[in-house]
Write a structure and sequence with these properties.
5-stranded mixed β-sheet, alpha/beta, 14 strands, D-Maltodextrin-Binding Protein, domain 2, binds beta-D-glucopyranose, 20 helices, 4-stranded mixed β-sheet
């Protein structure tokens, strides 16, 4: 379905190839991304500076509203024959565009710089299509984190909950003390981000893969999946009434400012704490969503270059090489909250949450517990992903029972395939 949609707009792009090739400014690289929060913008400046040292100017094309909005804008730009030179992409979106022959082959840069040996296997699965590099991964984010205000936890003598039941009991104490237990932004992708953790907590890595990666109807329709929805229902009871539509970084601010005690969010939230001058284990705590120790639900930002003719190629290569630069990856990820997508970057300079993430990823790689985030497009293609988004967000924003949600989930996945 998605493929067909891209194919339908192919004609426009092919027509524009010749045009863009002639008109392209070889010394400028237009980069489209959705990094518009304070922490994200600071991290982005590392990439801008890196590109500059290679002799290229950065043409900034930020898209407000997150990855979903960016995907829509990209489709429109491709349809009108005017794609950017490079674009931030997640998971299955990369092979979908590559299979339609839109993406630049980055093999010359990748083989010169040895990317094959540097990038973890589960990430390469998305960076390479038919054995060819078509995207450069700049970071590894993780979604099964909880970010907590340390002052509130200390005041109430709370420690990171080890089970979901403990989390529920802690939330009760937090509410009674006058704080919001869970800072949440009511946008479909944020609800999906919480769902990543709920499914992992309810069933563990094997179940997560069976249900959300293999889309096995018996796992999707199981009692274990019902437990994941039960967790979502309990979490819904922990948020404040003003959650609908709130941006994720505003929810993070609620934890930073001590209005709320916790946020379940990928570690780009850490970029907001850092940007506000906050320190881990001094001002805030980072710990795994209960029941997900040992599991690493990853979300990797990659940049792909669009095929726009020979003239744009040197700039796109220079940008890919900037992204994969060891020093750039160290600096960028320390600010962004993520960890490098290269395995050879030393831990020096990373804070305790970053070091934990680096160690956890290495351990998870050995036990096959590094699994792709459903919410951020690394578990299933965009068609079923959007269908599951609808089920999850409808459940979170209604009084539907977990048993009915599970039935809806099985049906939605079936219809989307
Ligand atoms: C991206 C992150 C980004 C976050 C919030 C995620 O989809 O992978 O890099 O910080 O969205 O904008």
């Amino acid at each position: 379905m998605y493929k067909k949609r891209i194919a339908a707009i192919a004609v426009g792009l092919v027509a524009c190839h010749a045009l863009s090739a002639g008109a392209a400014d070889t010394k400028t690289v237009e980069v489209m991304h959705w990094w518009t929060s304070g922490g994200e913008a600071k991290a982005l400046s590392v990439l801008k500076d890196g590109l500059k040292t290679k002799g290229y100017a950065w043409k900034d094309s930020p898209i407000a509203g997150g990855g979903e909005a960016a995907r829509t804008v990209l489709k429109a730009r491709v349809a009108s024959g005017n794609p950017p030179d490079a674009i931030q992409m997640l998971g299955f979106t990369i092979p979908e565009y590559a299979q339609e022959d839109y993406l630049q082959n980055l093999d010359p840069v990748a083989s010169k710089e040895g990317w094959d040996k540097l990038v973890p296997g589960p990430i390469q699965k998305f960076s390479k299509v038919d054995g060819h590099w078509v995207a450069a991964p700049v970071d590894v984010h993780r979604t099964n984190w909880i970010w907590a205000n340390k002052k509130i936890f200390d005041q109430l003598k709370l420690t990171p909950p080890k089970t979901f039941e403990e989390l529920v009991a802690d939330a009760d104490k937090i509410r009674k003390a006058g704080y919001i237990p869970l800072a949440h932004g009511g946008q479909a992708w944020q609800e999906a981000t919480i769902f990543d953790s709920a499914v992992m907590s309810a069933g563990g890595p094997k179940f997560y893969q069976q249900a959300l990666v293999k889309l096995d109807p018996s796992a999707l329709g199981s009692k274990t999946m019902e437990k994941a929805f039960d967790q979502m229902r309990a979490l819904r009871g922990m948020v404040d009434p003003n959650f609908p539509g709130r941006d994720w970084n505003l929810a993070t601010s609620m934890v930073i400012n001590g209005k709320a005690a916790m946020q379940i969010m990928g570690d780009w939230a850490k970029g907001e704490f850092a940007s506000a001058g906050k320190q881990p284990n001094v001002d805030y705590l980072c710990f795994n969503y209960p029941g997900t120790d040992g599991a690493f639900i990853f979300n990797t930002d990659q940049f792909a270059g669009f095929k726009k003719g020979e003239a744009s190629l040197p700039g796109e290569y220079a940008f890919a090489s900037t992204i994969m630069d060891k020093g750039v990856q160290a600096k960028f990820n320390q600010i962004k909250g993520s960890i490098p997508a290269r395995l050879d970057v030393p831990q020096d300079g990373f804070d305790e949450c970053g070091k934990k993430s680096m160690n956890d990823m290495r351990a998870a790689l050995k036990t096959d517990s590094m699994v792709g985030s459903f919410a951020h497009g690394h578990a299933m293609p965009d068609g079923p992903k959007n269908a599951v988004y609808d089920v999850v967000t409808h459940f979170f924003n209604s009084n539907q029972s977990s048993a009915d949600a599970v039935k809806a989930l099985v049906a939605a996945v079936k219809n989307s395939q």
